[in-house]
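Entry 14. Structure prediction run on the chain below.
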Amino acid sequence: MKPAIYTEQAACQDCYKCVRECPVKAIEVKDGHAVVVQDLCLYCGHCVTVCPVGAKRMREDLPRAKLLLARRESCHISIAPSWVSEFACSPGQMAAALLALGFRSAGETSIGAEVVSSAIRRSFSSSLSLSTACPAVTELVEKYYPRLASHLSPWKSPMLAHALMLKQRYGDKAGIVFAGPCIAKKQEGDKHEECVDVVLTFDELRRWFDDAGIDLRSIEPASFDGMASRGGSLYPVDGGMIASIKEKAQIIDATMISLSGTESIMRSLDDLGEQASGRPLFLEFLACKGGCINGPATDKKRSLVSKRLRVIETAARRSEEGEAASSLAPVGDEKLSKRWQADRGVDRRHFSSEEIESALIRLGKERKEDRLNCGGCGYHTCADFAAAWIEGKAEKAMCVASMRRIAQKKMNAIIKAIPLGVVIVDDEMNVVECNRKFLEFFSDFPPEEIDEVIIDNMVGRPAARFLPETEGIRRIQGGERELVEKRLEYRGRIMKVLIFIIERDRFTGVLFEDVTSLTKRRDTVIKNAEAVIAKNLATVQQIAGLLGESAAETEIILSSLIDVFKSSGGGGEGR
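Output returned:
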């Protein structure tokens, strides 16, 4: 089975946006393609959201869910409470739609959230405690902050809690499907196959409704298997878990803080030190900014404010209407508890300043002005890029500034060495680049005085100042033709001219080849051949018929030679 997130390499366009956006840089660029490093990934799904060409993809699990439903006698679905911000229908209509797919029962995951909140209230201690509802956050702590793994709340997530309740009620062979806004839940489900069989995103669920021809707005309402109270329904928004925990208990001595967004969470974890020990502190962390309502598989067209209001208003209505009893009994603490792993920490290598400096030099970044920290490679600084390069996660070609500089050097070397006159002009017919030969042909400078300073000073000057005519360039820039070849006679020289587009509406290039000597040699050959013909004709007239055939053949051969030279025109001089 594919991992929850993977790279479709053929689609990758090397933009490095995933590198730039990944909070833990779990991306490796190899052979020009940016691929997800599974051991480093949090499965937050942000790379899937930002990839402009869809090269970062989440695993498609809808076929597995349909197969499960077809093969298992009893299948049940748990839907995350954030559905109220995604689907425009009532709870009764959502329950009816899920049952219409073929599930034996449908319930909200918020029932599991209630169980988790209750467990946290019972176990609240006087030390640091980190929430575990978000699987991307638990991946972050276990992989990148293993020293804090022991502070993760010792309870399973609401999804797993609800799944355990369903298994307890319907038996271990019952199929359990979860639907929510999160890709990381797929990874969590993979690790807990004894609880959840298939995890779907809201996008996949929406497509399933479409495949089944279910219209959420017109379906006759049914009932969920129990409804959670206000607290459990608030879990999808940041601060909702804390509100749920506080709903039925007074934790006046504790400091409870909610925070969302992986980079903000990482900064907080970096700073967690002595001030966090020996005091009650509960930190509710959600990897997606704003909470699960902004998960990677949610509708991005709707604002966070709108989604948050939907969740809060729904929770408030349930608080007024009261809870509906669920047929599910809470699971015991033994089943609900979870031991987090402190031995999953990834090797976060740190390099000395000498190692970074050496790498920067080998990357061609010797000078201060070469180290722009432009972020084009996806890393915040050139030093970060150098560290990734040492680790084998980055390639030289990722440095756009360096590649541009190398390309410029190559172009300058070619223009300087080429035995032709070269000039590049912009759309306003001003010189962008030229070489010594061009100035030898068209400027008034004595050849021995033309140096790099003079050549550089030509940039920005009107091309018409040097060229006797610019009609060919204007035709190219006007889009009449892609390429123009012509012959030019100027200051005693005969030149072959080639005008071509470098970048439409921006830059045009012109090459000048001095073919004067070749042309003169050709004219001399033609003249000598004509003299031979005349001489042969005279001979023919003198000796009449005896040598007539031989002379005629000679005439034919020499005439052909003349035709070849004449027909070769300006392009055949060098042959």
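The radius of gyration is 38 Å.
Filed with the rest of this week's runs.
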